[in-house]
Amino acid sequence: MNVFIAGGTSGIGYALARHYLEKGYDVGICGRNLAKISENNLENVKTFQTDVCDMNAIATAVHTFLTGGQNLDIFINCAGSYAEDVAGKISYEEAEEMLQTNILGTVNCFETARKVMKGQKKGSIAVIASVSGILDYENSSLYTKTKRSVIQIADAYRRALKPFGISVTTIVPGYVDTEKLRQLNNNDLHKKPFLTDVETAVIHISEAIEKQKKRVIFPAKMKWMMKSLSVLPSFLLNTIMFRKAQWMKDDQP
């Protein structure tokens, strides 16, 4: 089995790469900063320094990974960018990076995998979205809007690729205890409800891909909380989510 993971140098992507290596699969990963891999001592993996915003670079990395006409069995896009803009302001550069990485990067990954798998008549594509993308309200953060876009993009590709035997799985996690999340919150995660450890997240994600599920939301408590919030009137949801963002920001320096 050949597995390629975009954004596989750290966090969930790195944990998935380790998971598939332990299963004996051939694994390729790409990311902007390959130095993270040496820090994590990930061995027997093919690495590519690639930005998902550059589709040609992603395509080259995948074709280089697949030597000798091999099939691409699984492609997982774990790349993402985050900046908070509800309770505080973000720079244009931060906004641009989120739009480019979370939307353009998602399309680039789907297109790369699609072109390879279409000729195979089989394959599995997965993308990491966010539980925040379930909510649809006017004043949601830019991050939330980009992740909602990821969910919609995945739905569109699922419909288009089904006739070719290609499955598309949308992974919609709540808070996952990664190094990145700890960095963003000064190592204080007490305001992150229903926190999931990385190992549990990997189990949810790998099982969803194996079973070719359309969409998986976890943990269950976060899933039901978000679904409950989604039925509220927009004006009330706006107020609740803004106050939540302020509350979460209060302890930040």
From TrEMBL:
Signal peptide: none annotated. GO terms for molecular function: acylglycerone-phosphate reductase (NADP+) activity; triacylglycerol lipase activity. This is SDR family NAD(P)-dependent oxidoreductase. It holds the Pfam family adh_short. Keywords: Oxidoreductase. It comes from Chryseobacterium antibioticum. GO terms for biological process: phosphatidic acid biosynthetic process; triglyceride catabolic process. One of its GO terms (cellular component) is lipid droplet. Belongs to the short-chain dehydrogenases/reductases (SDR) family.
